[in-house]
């Protein structure tokens, strides 16, 4: 598979299902997806917080954006691993740091996997965009193997040549390595936005100020969320000027492909290593023995231009 064969086609908005665990950066990804994609649905998974909270947070975001996009909750726990969350980054609610309203409506169902399968069978060319643990996507692919050749592809946030939850593993893959392995082996177009690219994309104080300068409550709440998120990053890292805004990158990889450089690689998920469980093993060998690529790995982002996409999307929903 060549890199160009996997690049999204410029033109009409891509139709996507956003599979998420909000999560501060997931919340920003919802804004960008609402602005720049045909957002068919939001599915939620346990990850940054327990499922009841990630679902609640997704519903709050749809309210704040005035969306009637369906929200379906999915897997309450990983396939094999015990459920473990990320309150140390996102707070106990998954979206600490802002005075958020209660959601106005319940989730449309707790059958996210059925929603994914039915939507991908009834709609041509859907992109799945998992930005949390990949449990829902793996369960959908296992229950409906035909999805692998029905969908346009999968654009995911996860992995990297270094980890954050462990020295080797990024959180989304560490949380459910068996699910991630199924996704990376599914056989269709795959775009990986890992830590190498997402750590280039930081919510620095001037960028948060730019969000806060957008008039209205949405921008104020999102600036508060980014401030909290950035505080956890700058106090936990030696070298970051703000939170890495990971998740919108997986959306913008489809909607704004020109903002990124990418390289075609073979990537597998380590599921058994004593120290490396959840690691993306990226074959970077410049050797003829290297494995054929199964994935486009994003390597660089035009970070100023990408953050401008976020600010503009927030402004668009603030009018
Ligand atoms: C990923 O983990 C979560 O904390 C973020 O929402 C992002 O999806 C980054 O490792
Ligand atoms: Ca996430």
Automatic annotation (TrEMBL):
Presence of the UniProt keyword Cell membrane in the record: no
Domain Inosine/uridine-preferring nucleoside hydrolase: 16-307
A GO molecular-function descriptor: purine nucleosidase activity
Biological processes, Gene Ontology terms: purine nucleoside catabolic process
Keywords, sorted A to Z: Glycosidase, Hydrolase
Keyword match Hydrolase: yes
GO CC term, one of those recorded: cytosol
InterPro entries for this protein: I/U_nuclsd_hydro_CS, Inosine/uridine_hydrolase_dom, IUNH, Ribo_hydro-like
Pfam families in the record: IU_nuc_hydro
Protein name (Swiss-Prot/TrEMBL): Unannotated protein
